[in-house]
Amino acid sequence: MQGPRCCLLLFLCLLPLPLHATSPDDSQKPLPLPFSTSDPTAHLLRGRPSAPVRPYSLSLSPEDYRYAPKPRHLRPGRLRRLLGPAFDPFWMSSEEPLGRNLSAKEDLETMSRELVEGGGRYRRKLWREVEGMELPPELPADMARPLRRWLVERALCRLTSTWVDLGPVFWPRWVRHTACRTGPPACSWPLGMACHPAQLAHLKLLAWHCWAARPPGPLHCAWRKIPYPVVVACKCSCR
User: Fold this and answer.
1) Segment Disordered: which positions (predicted)?
2) What global pTM score does this model have?
């Protein structure tokens, strides 16, 4: 048996009856380093990428981008019009966000439509599984609901975030990277399960893209919209 149901059953069998739930802390493992490629954004410009794009996998190394936009290409008003309604101030910023190092302490699940929907989906799933469990017959009736609530809260996987500078070839260049919160208490008992990304959402960003129609012909550059995946929900699982 895998997933949150396994986690919840293990809680019930091996833990003493708790008086109240504990809250996870804000510790976080560093995000995996992005890979490098000679053309980091070209595959994102296709109508249907050949493979799903992993979140935060684009290279952030300036050496991987041979051409950068000039100041005349970086007029905020024009770029805002190009991006249109895809601009979301929760996820992106053209300037370095104030207090960006404190973002891990925010209650993220209530601050964005994508996070509200993603977190709500897995909370409802956990409640369905918990309500379908058989509790010990000796458990007092007035303790059943608090126990179920504690099990759900313990198995929930919350998010943390940090602002990342993508560099001058992206606009907005500052994007919020979300990740599954780690650290004690674990989401399973006995230990062995952990929080992993379960749902992605795709933002829209502008990327500075350059190409030559017929090499060695003249170089053409323009801002193009690209999808940018971010984590919007996590779940407790073995992998």
Assistant:
1) 24-57
2) 0.70
